[in-house]
Specification:
Oligomer: single chain
Largest sheet: 2 strands, antiparallel
Distance between the termini: 83 Å
Radius of gyration: 22 Å
Strand content: 5-15%
Helix content: 40-55%
Structural class: alpha+beta
Order of helices and strands: EEHHHH
Shape: elongated
Number of helices: 4
Length: 95
C-alpha cells in the first residue's frame, strides 16, 4: 500500500523534536531595517497563545528586544522617537 510504512510491533516512532529556540525577524517600521531576535519556543507560545505578559514569557530577553517583538521598533529608533517627543514636550512647557 502506498503511504503505508511497515514497522515492527513496539518499534519507536520517530517524531521531530521541536527546537528549543526560535528566530523571529521583524522590520522596524521607522528605519526599515530587519532585526532578528532569538527567543525560547516555550516563551513564544506562552506569550502568543496563552496570553502571558511578554516580560513573564521572556524574562531573560532584554527589554529592548521585547519591545522589538511587540512593536517592531528597534532600540535606536525608539530612543530617537522618545527624544523627539521629549523635545516637543519641552517646547510646549516653554510656551
Amino acid at each position: 500500500m502506498k503511504g503505508y510504512e511497515r514497522r515492527s510491533p513496539g518499534a519507536p516512532v520517530e517524531e521531530p523534536v521541536p527546537p528549543t529556540t526560535m528566530m523571529i525577524t521583524r522590520e522596524c517600521p521607522i528605519c526599515h531595517i530587519f532585526h532578528t531576535v532569538q527567543v525560547p519556543t516555550e516563551g513564544w507560545f506562552r506569550w502568543k497563545r496563552e496570553g502571558w505578559l511578554i516580560q513573564d514569557a521572556f524574562p531573560g530577553i532584554p527589554k529592548e528586544e521585547r519591545e522589538l517583538l511587540i512593536t517592531g521598533v528597534d532600540d535606536v529608533c525608539w530612543q530617537q522617537l522618545w527624544a523627539y517627543l521629549e523635545d516637543e514636550d519641552d517646547d510646549d512647557d516653554a510656551a
